[in-house]
Amino acid sequence: MTDNKLSGLIAATYTPLHDDGELNLDPIAAMTDWLLAKGIRGLYVCGSTGEGMSLSGAERRVVAEAYVKAAAGRVPVIIQVGHNSLAEARQLAAHAQEIGANYVSATCPSYFSINDVDTLIDCMAEVAGGAPELPFYYYHIPALTGSALDMAEFLERGGKRISNLVGLKYTDTKLHVFLQCLQVDPERFDVVWGCDEMMLGALATGATAAIGSTFNIAAPLYLGIMEAFRQGDMNEARRLQSLSVEMIRTIGKYPFHAAMKSVLGMNGFNIGGCRLPQGRLSESEIERLRNDLSSLGYFQWSQPSSSLSTNSL
Known about the structure:
Elements lengths: L7 E5 L15 H10 L5 E3 L11 H15 L5 E4 L5 H13 L4 E4 L10 H12 L7 E5 L1 H4 L5 H11 L3 E6 L4 H8 L7 E4 L5 H7 L3 E4 L2 H17 L2 H18 L4 H11 L16 H13 L2 H4 L12
Parallel strand pairs: 1-2, 1-8, 2-3, 3-4, 4-5, 5-6, 6-7
Helix pairs in contact: 1-2, 2-3, 3-4, 4-6, 6-7, 8-9, 9-10
Protein name: N-acetylneuraminate lyase
Keywords: Carbohydrate metabolism, Cytoplasm, Lyase, Schiff base
GO molecular function: lyase activity
């Protein structure tokens, strides 16, 4: 099991679909190359962004295999295996280990709520045990799972029970809790930020890595935020973070992930819409979104340039 912690921008990858909603694996290799060329330093597969919860177990396996193959060892690949069936989640974890993924991660079951840390530890021990050779990150996203338990307590107590627990994907907005988690055995635990709109605040709190959806379409912007922060240029860091907020606000006027897939289409990747209940944008909606993004200057500042360094973190 590797001791290396994640660093920099990790893209929460999208799952390409044909117009009929079936998997379309063909764009994954080119999309992966494109992301890496933009400065992405890891791939988080079949998470919320990748519609993992809308895919069958068999589909999740082939998507995971495609991204591991596309990455070809150049960047770490984290496979998200969370499922309401812990047995299936454990099998997905075992599969991730078998195909050569670097890490495994999981949300908690959400249909039946988890209301105490002991139960959460029991559930994650079951899942992580499916891939004992891989480092395991718990995916904390209370807005979707409904589980808003004390994550510092989970790390403190879960680390004693789950030998391969190495940290959290922390997708929440509570910076004070994020700070508490960072301070729990920092030699062992890696706490990765997961709210794109608040990256600057997370950097100030101590984040050294982030997993996000909009890194797929605007990696240079976020690398610019990191570089400005590193240089101590807070005015520039705030300016760039404001662009991120406006971009996300604009995309959020539509079903978010369907709109994000449309923006990837504007960047040359035809990866379809989303599975229901998320759906897809109409042609008129796509055109309005394109115009709105253009008015923000998105098609200029989303591209690598000398002012948005890719060498930070």
